[in-house]
Amino acid sequence: MYITCLDLEGVLVPEIWIAFSEETGIPELRRTTRDEPDYDKLMRWRIGILKEHSLGLREIQDTISRIEPLPGARAFLDELRSFSQVIIISDTFTQFGMPLMAKLGMPTLFCNELIASETGEITGFKMRIENSKLTTVRALQSIGYETIASGDSFNDLAMIEASKAGFLFRTTDQIRKDYPQFPAFEEYDDLLAAIRGAMV
Length: 200
What we know:
Layout: E1 2-6, H1 16-24, H2 39-52, H3 57-64, H4 73-81, E2 85-93, H5 94-103, E3 108-116, E4 122-126, H6 132-142, E5 146-151, H7 157-162, E6 165-169, H8 173-178, E7 184-185, H9 188-198
Parallel strand pairs: 1-2, 1-5, 2-3, 5-6, 6-7
Antiparallel strand pairs: 3-4
């Protein structure tokens, strides 16, 4: 029995923080898990910048409302779900991810939760579980599933390595160079074929 675990941002939808950076003109917010492996450090840094600019949840959700899935992502996901159970495992937050799930046909999303005040100021965040991607993959394996995983960033590497098969998708040149043991793809059709092949 197989289950496919996918990252969200950079794989199925554009990077939310990059889109918000472009809309607000704050270049510091372009930094993502491709640049900073320590997610806790990255998020605390982001929250500090938001506070400095008096920006909060409402403004980010407004940007998210205009984000569309990457070209071909919905068709890829529909095809993948026709032959595999799929869970999207993301370090994003429920308040960010759910509007995007509606645009992707409501696949299952495991993510985290933002802590925000009544005025929308983001004051913190609650991680679902420590090392969420790796921990989730191991939990699925413990109940009898073989996992196949794909993602693009540093925080995806552990779940890719722990899975029966793992693939990089539209990753950086540096990650591709540093982790040559993982097949790397740029097109959904190639990733789909690789996932199918891994289930044989």
